[in-house]
Amino acid sequence: MAASFAGMFIGQAVRTRMQPDVFRRWFLIAMILLGLYLASDALAEIYGIDSTDRADAKPAPLRKRIASARLQHRDADAEIDEQPAEQRG
Structure pTM? Predict the structure, then answer.
């Protein structure tokens, strides 16, 4: 939370020193870059490219949630397969 307040403070300080059009352009460029980074990380996870090969990488919470969901789905499928056909509905 402190980082978001610091970012807002810095953004306001920079915005007052720049022309509005220039600030808007650089802000949008930064948002596009952030979006591309998040999308590439998600795509890497979907296609199984492990970014933990990098020395500074840490497992993201999203990866843990995806792995947990996959395990739950697999376990649910196994339970359905074990049920008799008349109980499956």
Answer: 0.49
